[in-house]
Amino acid sequence: MKHVLGAVCGASVLLLAVPAMAETTLTIATVNNGDMIRMQGLTAEFTKKNPDISVKWVTLEENVLRQRVTTDIATKGGQFDVLTIGTYEVPIWAKKGWLVPLANLGGDYDVADLLPRIKDAVSVDGKLYAAPFYGESSMVMYRTDLFEKAGLKMPEKPAWDFVIDAAKKLTDKSAGTYGICLRGKAGWGENMAFLSAMANSYGARWFDEKWEPQFNTPEWKTTLTTYVNLMKEAGPPGASSNGFNENLALFNAGKCAMWIDATVAASFVTNPKDSKVADKVGFALAPNTGLGKNANWLWAWNLAIPVGSKKMEAAEKFIAWATSKDYTKLVASKEGWANVPPGTRTSLYKNDEYLKVAPFAKLTLASIDAADPNKPTVKPVPYVGVQYAAIPEFQGIGTQVGQQFSAALAGSMTVDAALTAAQSATEREMKRAGYIK
Amino acid sequence: MARMATTRRVVISTAVAWLFGFLIFFPILWMVLASFKTELEAFAIPPSFLFFHWTTENYATVQERSDYFHHAMNSVIIAGGSTLIALLIAIPAAWSMAFSPTKRTKDILLWMLSTKMMPPVGVLVPIYLIYKTFGLLDSRIGLVFILCLGNLPIVIWMLFTYFKEIPRDILEAARMDGATIGRELVYVLTPMAIPGLASTMLLNLILAWNEAFWTLNLSTSNAAPLTTFIASYSSPEGLFWAKLSAASTLAIAPILVLGWFSQKQLVRGLTFGAVK
């Protein structure tokens, strides 16, 4: 027994020793999305060009990553050299002084080629604090065969009235076909991403110029009533637990006539390997009510350097490589043009080879152009962000409000009660944070 | 007649027990099945139970994309190391509380248990700062230390209840024969408490293996155990259930095998704590 214990202790001590490395090792935190996985697969191309740099990947679930990275960056832990963060975090973290401005991306990087909306979203006071890796907006994806059968024609810029009527006409619950699939799962990045964008198109806003929450306005009531009624009549059962992936599965299985969600979904629903309806999908801009704003959001996953990193030079080299035009070409040569990260560079949307394999490219670009994070709503607002307000408190508030709206969709709460609860919860948080008295 | 009624009762209760057993086991079974489906089939509604196109491509993808053995080795070291150290501290602690209690023994035991009542996230930032200062972030020794601390109260409590069961007279007899405290602990108490020690060790091993809060927050790559390996397969945009299931099946396989072979001790250990 004694010998066994001794041996185990000895072995443990030996194994606990971590080997030392002479070269610069970058630790990169990222999420498990197709484009990021592809980037990991191509790391060898970067290290071949930069033999003194090696790369370690830390892939985590989106919310775990957010918590993990926030803890590290707030304590200046220095565990990561490159972070994958969203457009929501970039302005907040940049203002807190947590991110290093990217000033040395290299002469051939061509910052002017970045899509203006996306570039705005990752810049503060004209300085770039993160480099966009891929960008997205949201749009309508619809079944051309079902529309044709019902004698309907989708306009390129549909109005909400048309979408609602079409959804009701196309619903055939006995056949398991539903007119429209929308997000219902609670969360600031889940149902609230869609509902905030929809509210923008109905003239609603999160806060007025003095940071007063606006859920007691008629615009929000119209938005939420329309959404709940539409989903009750034309949505799939159990919609209050559907997020992006659930709706993707429903649409790919041919259960939805329309789906309004992220533009990146276009490449999934048109891929015959994953989708039963790959050759029957059409695209249109997100709906509007004629007030000048469409119900589409703007989001990008970006690469940034935290101030705690001790390997800034190598980190910036990596970011410049992964978000460059050459990287796009590299992906195209290895995996085809259909797999290049979309939504960040103007040049991609002028590339004939890409346009040939991506029938949704033009609408993706039009959708991104239609979402202005600096002027997201019909009435003026004090915040930046289309489907979110870029303030640190928004994650918590957004999720609380999302829970109320998800409950309204599930039928366990009325629309009025959900709006009242959302208003009082938001007021409480905003008072606590000192925005209002 | 009475005999028949008894037989019927046995049959019914056996069937009910099997049904409950199956229900509890079902999520694991479903996970294993999903790991052999394609992404589209894993998400299909209505789901297919056994009649689908079986594939091992998810396992191949997982193998190709991440280093399973690196993570598994870290899990073995972290779970094993923390259990070993916890036992080394807990055996003398439980011994002293079981055989030489003072006025404050009960309070100390309760205080130790109370540390388990605090949500770990409450001390994340202070621990993170301490680890940063001492260079323990993303190190196996750091994780061994935190998991050992976290599980120590449970280990001490379990061992305490086992030791209480051992008749004091035997220890006194050993002392009469001239045994020192050290010899008494190693040659008399420990062999008698082997079943208890084994079940405590197993339970602690499983708890440490499954621990996901500290292991996710304090490790990045060098010390990352299987919990981070699983977490890397969840995706906000794109279908991932089949690959996630394959990763989870690989992650639980070693501990499942260990649990299967030692279920007798485990059940004894678990029910022991519950009854006491």
From TrEMBL, chain A:
Keywords: Periplasm, Signal
Location(s) in or outside the cell: Periplasm
InterPro entries: Bact_solute-bd_prot1, SBP
GO cellular component terms listed in the entry, alphabetical order: periplasmic space
Region forming the signal peptide: 1-22
Chief localization: periplasm
Superkingdom, natural source: Bacteria
Protein name: Sorbitol/mannitol transport system substrate-binding protein
UniProtKB/TrEMBL annotation, chain B:
Cited Pfam families: BPD_transp_1
Domain called ABC transmembrane type-1: residue spans: 72-262
Subcellular location per the Swiss-Prot or TrEMBL entry: Cell membrane
TM regions (residue ranges): 12-33, 76-96, 108-131, 143-163, 184-209, 240-261
Protein name as catalogued: Sorbitol ABC transporter membrane protein /mannitol ABC transporter membrane protein
Assigned protein family: Belongs to the binding-protein-dependent transport system permease family.
Gene Ontology cellular component list: plasma membrane
Organism encoding this protein: Bradyrhizobium shewense
Membrane topology: Multi-pass membrane protein
Keywords: Cell membrane, Membrane, Transmembrane, Transmembrane helix, Transport
Superkingdom as given in the UniProt entry: Bacteria
UniProt GO BP: transmembrane transport
Predominant localisation class: membrane
